[in-house]
Amino acid sequence: PTVLLVLGVLEIHVDQEMVGKISAAVKLMQCSASLDVLFLLDGSYSIGKGSFERSKHFAGKLCDALDIHPDRVRVGMIQFSSTSHLEFPLDSYLTKQEVKERIKRTLFRGGSTETGRALKYILRKGFPGGRNSSVPEILIIISDGKSQGSTVMPAMQVKERHITVFAVGIKFPRWEELHVLASEPPEQHLLFAGDADDAANGLYSALTGSVCSTTAPGCKVESHPCERRTLETVKELAGNYVCWKGSKQPNAVQASLCPFIRWKRVLVKYPSRCFRTVCPDPCDSQPCQNGGTCVPEGLDRYHCLCLVGYGGDFHCAAKLSLECGVDLLFLLDSSAGVTLEGFLRYKAFLKRFLQAAMGQDSPMNVGVAQYDDDVRIPIELGQHKDTLSLMKSVDALDFSGGRTLTGRALQYIAEHGFRSTPVFADVQDDLPRVIVLLTDSKSQDSVAEAPQYMKDRNLFLIGVGSSFMRAELTKVTGNPQQTIVYSDPQDLFNRIPELQRRICSVDNAEGCQAQSLDLTFAVDASSGVGPENFLHLRHFVRSSCLHFTINRDLTQIALVIYGSKAHTAFALATHTSNSAVLQAIDQVPFLGDSASAGNALLHIYGDVMTVQKGARPGVNKVVVLLTNGGGLEDAAAPAQQLRHSGILVFVVVVGDAQRDTLLRVAGSPSYLVHISSYEDLQYYQGFIIERICEEAKSPVNLCKPNPCMNQGVCILGPGSYRCECHGWEGPHCESS
């Protein structure tokens, strides 16, 4: 690990990322408790004017984290050297700005370092302008710790009055003396003013919980190994020299050896612990996909540096291309119910989708309509042939804010949206016609007739909206698989690849029935799922199988159920027809113990996706893991092992689960489907089947997974493979 080294004096053993988090956390700190804070600044000659200015800078920086107000935090300052001088009492300045300006105007006085006298001054006078111990009192001593008198007794008396003392070193401090001054535990109350951000963080971390409330959500105080250093002057025996000494005899001297002493500056180290508040930065969730690098921009913003071939959206999604030819019309809700903010969000979504999906040679014709009481088509279908001019027209769309008459808008678009005119004569009439409805507001008129409008005119309607719109969108489209819902505003932008797939599936209703595929479902049958929800999962597997043609040449399906152990309900080669598979699924029992998805994936790797159990070389292989999110802690390594062998792992999770854990198992957000409830599983089935079908079309490595048994080595040839056997015989090393 690297270290945070502050002017060679304080070394905190953390990596560079943590250094940034410590510094950034200061910007989130704000103590609003009732608190009296008194700065005691060393203004002696041993400090010097330069270090005194640094002390002032630290005091000002700390004020940024204090909510200075007569009823909350009050701040005062005393400068000490030979004598103590009250710079300003705690009730003089009422705002943060006034206090910081007054600190800047404080002049260096000079003199000897009488820290003990300064503490006695406080014992005698108290906190000038304070609230007489009715609120917590914080004393912040900023000094090099080189007092010319004893500080032990007055420091102890100050702390006995329940004053919390922070000892902040400056220049090359004498840490032993500052240790005496600081409150217990000294590790939390000893700081160094050389790095104002780090010191302010350390001070605030010590006050968090006891005096100040906690900082922003997700922030926490952490302990790190650190080392405090200083330069000290020590005696060193350099050798001996000849010297002359007197003698008892009169008029006589004698030669002798005398020690030669010199003074030397040495670096002394004090190992310790440092307590600092760290806050999550926006890159902690690893938002950049496909190998993209996340670069934080402050506390809540970031950007992704994407690899070549990615950058289809903000998070480095694969650059999309609508290779399918369609006439595509977006219908944007511009009513008061969606609000101006929602309308602007839809415009941003539309622009990002077009940037990601429209290439120069895209066979797609795009139009945009918007509605409230009325329907307008500001961008006619096929009006723009280049993305740039289309973007400018999208930017020019204005929010109107009337009633939400979705039913009327759909009827109008069905009749007039795709009408060819001489101006747009180049629009191809034989292309599939798709309408994408973007709405986040319940319709104020009937939408029940909408599916029939679309069917009568051979139009394909996709509904996009927030999750509370799911029921209405299903009614509008007439098919839950033609609805796309998002959980929050940012999640809307994550739906771009899904929308692209839905648009291009218009002419591909058969899915992957003609593709060869070895497919295994792994179903969580543990007590965490429960018997009722297990039936939902079982029904999902059953209805999914209807999308495949099951036989030896096309799709083979296996089913594994698991609790703490995994059980093969049926293997890939067991059933050769759809009816046999459906009948077998109905017989699968609920198990009801604890869950271990890791054991299930290991079982699939070693005992299901193998040539011995019916897996076919040269055929794409997919595992669909259905779980409630429990028992995934041991699943990341087996999932990676499956991927390394060319077997794709889709993770379908129902309910609450840690996204970081899910991503480790899925390997990529592209292979993770997170669903809020078991009832919603049906709405995602079409999307999941589409993703499986896409993978079924990808090129296959004939040697992954290894078709050779008994440690045989698979060797690829042009369009084929052979097994090199050791002590075994047969095409797959199966005979001894």
Automatic annotation (TrEMBL):
Locations listed in the record: Secreted
Name of the protein this chain belongs to: von Willebrand factor A domain-containing protein 2
GO cellular component, one term: extracellular space
Subunit structure: Forms monomers and multimers.
Any matching Pfam family: EGF
Organism from which the protein derives: Manacus vitellinus
Membrane-traversing stretches: none
Any one GO biological process: calcium-independent cell-matrix adhesion
Keyword annotations from UniProtKB, A to Z: Disulfide bond, EGF-like domain, Repeat, Secreted, Signal
Domain EGF-like residue range list: 280-317, 699-734
InterPro entries in the cross-refs: ECM_Assembly_Org, EGF, EGF-like_Ca-bd_dom, VWF_A, vWFA_dom_sf
GO function terms (MF aspect): calcium ion binding; identical protein binding
Chief place of localization: secreted
